[in-house]
Amino acid sequence: MFVNRDDELATLNREYSRKGSSFTVIYGRRRIGKTALITQYIQEKQALYYYATQIRHNQHIEQMASQMISFFNLPYLENMKFSDLEQLLIFFSEQLPDDKKIIFAIDEYQELVKVIPGCSSIFQRVWDLNFQHKQIHLILCGSVLSMMHSEALAYDAPLYGRRTSNIHLKAMKFGNIKDFIPQISPEDAMRVYASFGTVPKYLEMYDNQMDFINNIANCILNKNAYLYQEVKFLLKEEKGDGPTYFSLLQTISMGERKIGNIAKKLQIPSNHLTRYLMKLMDLNIIEKEVPVTESNPLKSKLGRYRIIDKFVDFWFYYVYKNSSMLEIGQCSFVLDEIEKTFNQRFVSFVFEDYAKECLIENPMKYLGFVPLKIGRWWNKNSEIDLVAIGENNIALIECKWQNQPVGIHTYQDIVKKTQYIQTSLPVTYVFFAKKGFHNSLKDIPDLKTYSYIN
Q1: How would you label 349-368 residue by residue, b for 16+ Cβ within 10 Å and e otherwise?
Q2: pTM of the predicted structure, to 2 decimals
């Protein structure tokens, strides 16, 4: 299923329209929709698409050669043998027409790199000497981010400086959930957001014929389900110390946010954790937050780490720590825990992410001004869900996922918190609520209210 990759498609089509050669690197984690993007892009275009699997060096050469010979309709060469990848790529370049652009896309590029010595250096030479003088759009696509960086994106990578565009494909937005699950209720959409997240493949797993809890039980908690082992596969694809990544993410999921506390919990020096945290940030699994008002975020001592991949967060909190129970089929124990803690521990927090998405996509509607930055705020005394700062305005935003209407006490509390922000800008207060507001909040001039469920 293809949903909402308009910007990425526009980038690829611009590359296709470019005179001469184009070279795009597409990268992103497993199941994020990279193949679907390429498939959509090459429709009705002349394109050779090669999906690299886990096979030996010579088998890649044979399979790729067979596709090339078929693509250029050269049946008399079907028995031709190529000694190596470089010879094959040069052969391909020699067949390219001068008057029409040809797309050559290699998906799961890391599988070539694993088995072909100097693979990216070969592509570098062929690009410099052959491809860049042709009408070609070369696409290298991969899901192991560390390898895509070391081979194509980093300053010392063999292919650095050759690409004309790169696309880092990330998870969908909250608003796309209904594209995958059209009949879902607003409340269940938020619950799906807090559990399945917005990775396209995960949303495709959701069965709209079952209720939310049964989807959790069948799609995630069942030891035979596709998503039960997904995080293990995701992390093990990346190079490094697997146990440390798992311990680190479990610790953050259980509530530790400061690097000192995480290190103490794991009995590892803080400076030893930095490279693991950086890798997880590169994967868009975690992020480091500082209060949005910090003038020098890089030097802030108030940094906190949080898991931003919603499925990974849910998986570590409910699946990983309960794996002994789930391996013997004791799903009901975990479902009871979800019933007791899920709304407070997960849905309340992702409701803030939903609100932030609304503010970014339509700031004039929700704020009345365009902010320069939006983020969480805290100090040792207090916290505010979101603060939006503009050139001439500031907004303090509270998000309440509760069944009862939000009342005057919430407004009084946030007004008190204003003293900690220390701003001379005019302040607007913005409330996002699950189900409406008490009459006591009507006609407050500096307050904007938005109900998720009317």
Answers
A1: bbbbbbbbebbeeebeebbe
A2: 0.90
